[in-house]
Amino acid sequence: MKKIFGGIGSFLQMPVGVILTATAVWHGVLLGLGIRFNYFASGIVFLIDLAVASYLLDRLIYFFSQFVLPIQNPKDRREIYARVKIFDSGSRGPTLFVKNGRVIEHEGEAGKRGAGVVVLDTASALVLRTDTEIRDTVGPGIKFTRANEYIAGSVDLRAQWQFIGPLASDQPFLNPVPIGSPKNYNESYGRRQQTAGLTRDGFEVFPTISIKFSVKRPREKTASESGVNSQYGFDALSVRNAITREVVRLNTADNTKARMDWNKLPAHLVVNLWREYVRKFKLEDLFTSAEVSGLQTIEGMINKRMRESHVVALDDTGSPTGEWVESLERRQLELRGLEIMEVRIHNIMFEPSVEEQMIQQWSAEWMNAAKKEENFLKEKESLIETASRDEASKRFARLASEKFGGKVTLPQQNPFKTLQLLIQPLKEFILKESNASSDMEAELRKLDEIWKWLLEHSADNANRSGK
Q: How far is it, in rounded angstroms, from Cα 214 to Cα 219?
């Protein structure tokens, strides 16, 4: 009954229902009052009223429908008029609004297959299709859809940051089995496994990775089909590729296939590269204090693989090989109409036992290195000491023989005179190089005593020779 009365009420709200009801009531009053009227004339008047009311309704719909949406040309006016006219009928299509790449709709709107309308903000774009073909790529503005067209997918044209891996607030190792909150533990464990990777020495690490990406933008910004210029840029081919070129990921657990959304591909590629490169480094190499640590090298290589067509390959120890190879990840992004602006790796986590094991390993290695360094220093000290002794002997010989060089002399008859010639250069050198230290003064006193003794004996020897 409710449905029947609802249908009657809807009919009475229409111009035909209003005119028919008014005509019936008017003629009922005339019959009740016994006033005679001409049925043929009343029928003609009824038909004229219907025609005039229908025409006025049609023109009013055409006039007011222009203010429903910001349209500017006669073609769009005809399109919106046609959709407003059949809005209450069951044959109309969906009326949708796309904001920041998300389709906003009333319940049941997406299931309609008649002619409809889609309004997109400046940060949105989409692809329309039918059950058998891809139809059109739509940018910001207004798009009037045809019968059986529906949205195949939509994208956000803005640059987006995506974060994967454990959060800074996660403490998966301090409280591995929380009591009473298995859901939180499972979520934390799931985030940790998103970026889990093994180092070359077998340690498992879990970083937080942030990725900035977007649908590829055109070099020059152009207006969309609706005449809207988006500040984010709209490239129809990139949007079409991002939505229609599917990436299928195999689920190894049950051998099923899952379609990967366009905004999941950058994270998928980055994580695979992270796991590829982290296997080339030991855990301690990731945090070395050299000019470029292993972690900085990995981050730099990932950014190059995402933005450059060719990169230098690394060997199994993380050292450049000098060979230039093609970046397949960059190629995949181009095929999907995407681009990655920046990749950052931070907040590295690993189990506390790993840290203890590293400390023990570093302690053992430090002791070995310290012993090797001690032996090396001892050997070096011994070599320096021997070399210094030899150099001192050579220098002493040069100083001592200074008075005997340069010309040939006859042998001295007085041996004390010969000793004087040997000691004199040594005394002069000590006086010249002396820094007024107590040791040097003592040596000088000894040389003075020897010099006096030589003078006395030299004189005695000369007197004996004279006699």
A: 14
pLDDT score of 387 more than 60 = yes
Domain residue limits, the chain:
1-65, 160-232+240-350, 401-466
Contact 279, 198 (CB under 8 A): yes
Q: Where are the alpha helices (DSSP H) in 34-93?
A: 39-65, 74-85
Residue 372, amino acid: K
Q: Among 31-35, 218-222, 266-270, 437-441, whose mean pLDDT is lowest?
A: 437-441
- The confidence band for 433, taking pLDDT boundaries of 50, 70 and 90, is low
Q: Where are the beta strands (DSSP E) in 230-336?
A: 247-251, 256-260, 310-314, 320-326
Measuring CA to CA, which residue among 443, 454, 463 is closest to residue 421?
454
Backbone angle region of 250, left / alpha / beta, with phi > 0 → left and psi within -120 to 50 → alpha? beta
Side by side, which strands form the sheet with 95-99? Answer: 102-104, 95-99, 116-120, 141-145
∠ Cα 456 459 465 (to 5°): 145
pLDDT tens-digit map of 85-110 = 777 666 777 888 999 999 988 877 77
Over the stretch 174-224, which tens digit does the pLDDT of each residue have?
555 555 567 777 777 788 888 999 998 888 888 999 999 999 988 888 888
Residue 316 pLDDT exceeds 60 = yes
Which token pair is 101? 């790449």
E strand or H helix that includes residue 429: helix 415-433
Q: From residue 330, how far is each of 219, 275, 311, 413 by CA, in Å?
A: 18, 17, 11, 96
Q: What integer best gives the mean pLDDT of the chain?
A: 79
Residue 255, pLDDT above cutoff 60: no
User: What is the Cα–Cα distance from 4 to 421, expressed in whole angstroms?
Assistant: 142
- By CB atoms closer than 10 A (0-12, 13-18, 19+), residue 74 is exposed
Spatial contact of 246 and 274, defined as CB atoms under 8 Å apart: no
- The answer to whether residues 118 and 143 touch, using CB atoms and an 8 Å cutoff, is yes
Report yes or no: 189 and 106 within 8 Å, Cβ to Cβ: no
For tokens 């010309």, the residue is 407
Stated pTM of the model: 0.65
Measured between alpha carbons, how far is 159 from 125 in angstroms, rounded to an integer? 14
What is the number of H-type helices and E-type strands within the chain?
12, 15
